[in-house]
Structures are given as C-alpha cells and as structure tokens.
TrEMBL record:
This is Mitochondrial carrier protein. It is found in: Mitochondrion membrane. Solcar repeats lie at residues 9-93, 105-192, 200-287. One of its GO terms (cellular component) is mitochondrial membrane. Pfam families: Mito_carr. InterPro entries: MCP_dom_sf, MCP_transmembrane, Mitochondrial_Carrier. It comes from the Eukaryota. PROSITE patterns: SOLCAR. PANTHER family: MITOCHONDRIAL BASIC AMINO ACIDS TRANSPORTER-RELATED, MITOCHONDRIAL SUBSTRATE CARRIER FAMILY PROTEIN L. It is a multi-pass membrane protein. Belongs to the mitochondrial carrier (TC 2.A.29) family. Keywords: Membrane, Mitochondrion, Repeat, Transmembrane, Transmembrane helix, Transport. GO terms for molecular function: L-ornithine transmembrane transporter activity.
Amino acid sequence: MSQEHSAPPPRYLGFVAGMFSGVAKNLVGHPFDTIKVRLQTSDGRFKGPMDCVLKTWRNEGLRGFYKGCTPPLVGWVIMDSVMLGSLHTYRRFLKENFFKSDAKLPLSGHCIAGLMSGLTVSMVAAPVEQVKARLQIQYDGKTKQYTGPVNCVSQLIKQSGIRGIYKGLCSTMIFRTNFVFWWGSYEIFTQWFKTNTSLSNPAINFWSGGLSASVFWIFAYPADVVKQVIMTDDVKNPKFKRWIHAVKWVYETRGLKGFVRGFGPSILRSFPANAAALAAFEAVMRTLH
C-alpha cells in the first residue's frame, strides 16, 4: 500500500487483495480471539488467560477455540475486502483531490483514510462480530442457545428485526475510529524500515503490519471491551440502552481493570494475525499489479 507505482493500481484491486487478507487473519487469529471474548464477557468463570485456555481445551477440545469461526471466516473475507479496499480507494481519492502537490500521500492523509475506512467497514463488521461473539460464549451444551451462525442470525431477527443484528453498531464505529492509529503507524513503520533496513518488501509488510496492529489494540482495547459487552447483551431485555451505560457498567462492576480484561490474548493475537493479513494483502497487490 505504501509502494509508489508509475500508474496507481486499479481501485477494485484493493478489494480483491483484502479477501486474501481476511482468510489469513482468521486462520491465525481466531483461537486468540475466542479467549479474548470469553475473558471480556464472563464474570468469575475464568481466573485468567491461561485458565481460560486450559478450561476451553479440557471441556471443548480444539473445536472450542474455533467456536464462532464461520462468521469471521466469511465475514473477515468481506470485512477485510471492504476495509482494505476502501482504505486503498480513500488514499487514492485524498491523493488525487487534496494532496496533489505532494510526491506521496502524507501521514495525515493515511490517518484520514484509516478513519474513513474504519467507519465504512463498521456497517459490515457489526453483525459479523455480534454473531461471532454470541457463538464464542456458548461454553457447553447446557448453555447452548444457538445451533450455528444461521440460527443465531435467525433468532436475532425474529426477536428484534434487522435492528437485532446491528446491535452494537455505534460501539463498533467508536471502536474503529482507532484505525487512525493503525494506519498512521503502519505508514510510519513502513517508511522507517525502508529507510533504515535492507528488508525485502514482504518482510517490511509483515513487520509493519504486526507492529501497527499492536499499536492499534493498545489504544482501541477499552472500546473493544465495551463493544463486546453490548453485543452479548440480552436481546429481549437489554441491560444497556446507550454506549455510555455500558461504559459505566464495566467501571462500576469491574473497576478500571475491567477495561483491559483479556488484553493479553488480544495483544498476542494482534501481531501474528495482522502481520500475516497485511503481508497477504500486499503480496496480492504486488502480484496482480
């Protein structure tokens, strides 16, 4: 994405490459994500990340770590296609219309494009992430409310209509405003590696993707906790009517520590999953252009 070409790549190419990014991210990152969501949404069930890992393995086996995998496998292919495709499009739009005098898009342009892509992909991400989260917190047969992603979507629509599957849209958009930090730092890391190392382009993409994702999660994590709490709230009798109510609930019931619960698995996941995703994206962009 940071490479300069004699002719810019076609706009559709970012959407195509984003599909490959979504597959790579899901395969590498989903087990970490399951542990993160379970720690964020449960009260007293787990003592910590390792206890969650051991109990999940003991009670559910390997399949437990991939619960709710289908929605993001399909969804992240779509989400990364929309996110990275729109990011590529917004960067090109800003470069052609607002930064014409610059040889390349400045850092501020990358930050603005990141913000816009985050808000855009929220429309796809909200329903996908809600279904994923609801399936991930089904710990055993006794508490199993949904038989699968289709059944989950069906029940949500039956209970609350289309609004049901878009529960948490506002919190998703708030969470994804932190894309400013992701794509701004991605550009900073990319340029630093190009200037100060002799790494190949794929290696630069890998390290920049992993490091920038870690920066993103450091800033965005509290908003992610609030988002998950809202998305797994009871549909018929919701506890939270507004985003701020969920923020107050987390603080009052868990204290400040509640906003970083599950951070360990999240930060461990962020580097390998997003490094693989960004490397896949850039590789496809280079290959097809």
